[in-house]
Design brief:
The complex is a heterodimer of chains A (296) and B (102).
Chain A lengths: L7 E5 L6 E5 L1 H21 L4 H12 L3 H23 L7 H21 L5 H21 L19 E5 L4 E5 L4 H18 L4 H10 L5 H17 L2 H7 L4 H22 L4 H24 L1
Antiparallel strand pairs in A: 1-2, 3-4
Chain B lengths: L4 H34 L3 H32 L3 H25 L1
Helix pairs in contact in B: 1-2, 2-3
The chains are: A mainly alpha (296), B mainly alpha (102).
Chain lengths: 296, 102
């Protein structure tokens, strides 16, 4: 039960849009719980926690999109840092490829953070809904494909990589193909991250896997590093604009930290096929959510 | 990819540093939220929580900074260029944000 004494009002600082939010202990608990679930799924899929959290914060908690996106960005950073700290020292992360794509992702995330207040929201939802639906279908058609060269003596090239795969118990080598497609997707992913706060990994992981020949695990680990850097390329602007609710962001981040531990634990054990199926389902759900939002 | 054994050590240290960053940020957030829910000191609570959020935003930046050092050390000029550009972009975001706050 919430009494008026429990409720405290905060004035989110910022000259351009002064947002007044009523934040109760119940709201904080709700956001923390949602963060835990989002963090678990996000870490499991390498897509950051924001993808469920931002729609939830919009529909259930009733936050404006820009505030929900600000909270989403902070949870994306938390997921990214935890997952990439866990994978540091293993060779799953392809940092050379990641940093090349990061130039594109950071540029568009920064642009998006500057433009988002001027863009029609329905346009962004429509674009997002379409892109996620396409990738969901792409994932479903490629369930059995393995983008790995099992011969460890193959030269991976400048942007390829090699790592030890737990599932097959051997060293896996891959080459990265179609760098320009990967750069294009990173531009889109950065823009989506900077405008909707959901983390660009949702686009990067399937694209790197399906188009560029990067094995799903390496794509997810590389993307986990990238989404954090991409979020940091726009989050300070949300903060400066006053679109970052500190208590809600903290509640969501704490939830995500707990949830992502569980997700990371499952991630090492789930088989790639199930990971792909689950990811396709996630993408389909997100696509529908935004389509419904456009129509209503 | 380089198979320099020292690279693995740097990576492990980086992993620990990033975890330490997230842990200290989480500690600030827990303390700040408890203060916030006690509700008699909202401005101090917000300051503590905000400090935690800033520490959190620094952890991915640390990842890139270490990558720059690693790129220079291995004299991989392609990697130096990409990581350098990413650092420049992060600096630009920060500069724009600070200008807006003023």
């Amino acid at each position: 039960m919430i009494t008026p004494a429990d409720a405290s009002q905060i004035h989110v600082p910022g000259p351009s849009h002064p947002v007044q939010l009523l934040i109760t202990s119940a709201t904080i608990a709700l956001v923390m719980g949602a963060g835990a679930i989002a963090g678990c799924l996000g870490a499991l899929l390498g897509i950051g926690g924001g993808v469920f959290l931002v729609p939830f914060l919009q529909f259930v908690v009733g936050l404006p999109l820009n505030v929900a996106a600000g909270v989403g960005l902070m949870t994306v950073i938390a997921t990214s840092s935890v997952v990439s700290a866990g994978s540091a020292g293993r060779r799953l992360v392809n940092l050379k490829l990641g940093m090349l794509l990061q130039v594109a992702a950071s540029s568009s995330a920064l642009t998006a953070a500057l433009l988002v207040v001027r863009l029609p929201q329905k346009t962004l939802y429509l674009m997002f809904s379409a892109v996620t639906a396409i990738i969901a279908v792409l994932m479903l058609t490629r369930l059995e494909r393995r983008n790995v060269i099992l011969d460890a003596s193959v030269e991976p090239g400048m942007l390829g990589g090699r790592f030890y795969e737990e599932e097959s118990g051997r060293e896996v080598v891959y080459r990265t193909r179609r760098i320009s497609s990967a750069l294009g997707v990173s531009l889109v992913a950065g823009f989506v991250s900077g405008s909707l706060g959901i983390g660009g990994g949702i686009l990067q992981v399937p694209a790197l896997n399906a188009w560029c020949g990067v094995p799903l695990r390496a794509a997810a680990a590389t993307s986990a590093v990238m989404i954090g850097v991409t979020a940091v390329s726009s989050a300070p602007l949300y903060f400066a604009r006053g679109d970052l609710s500190a208590p809600l962001a903290a509640a969501a981040v704490l939830g995500v930290l707990v949830g992502s531990r569980a997700g990371f634990w499952f991630g090492g054990r789930a088989r790639a096929k199930w990971l792909k199926l689950l990811m396709a389902g996630v993408l389909g759900f997100v696509s529908m959510t935004y389509l419904v939002k456009i129509l209503s | 990819m380089k198979t320099d054994p020292r690279y693995g050590d740097i990576e492990k240290l980086l992993g620990r540093l990033m975890l330490a960053g997230v842990a200290s940020s989480a500690a600030c957030m827990v303390i700040g939220l408890v203060m916030y829910l006690a509700a008699n000191d909202v401005s101090h609570a917000t300051a503590v929580v905000t400090f935690g959020l800033i520490v959190l935003m620094l952890t991915p930046a640390l990842r890139v900074a270490v990558a720059v050092v690693e790129a220079v050390r291995t004299r991989d000029w392609f990697f130096v260029t990409t990581t350098g550009l990413v650092i420049l972009l992060l600096g630009l975001t920060l500069t724009l944000a600070i200008n807006r706050l003023r």
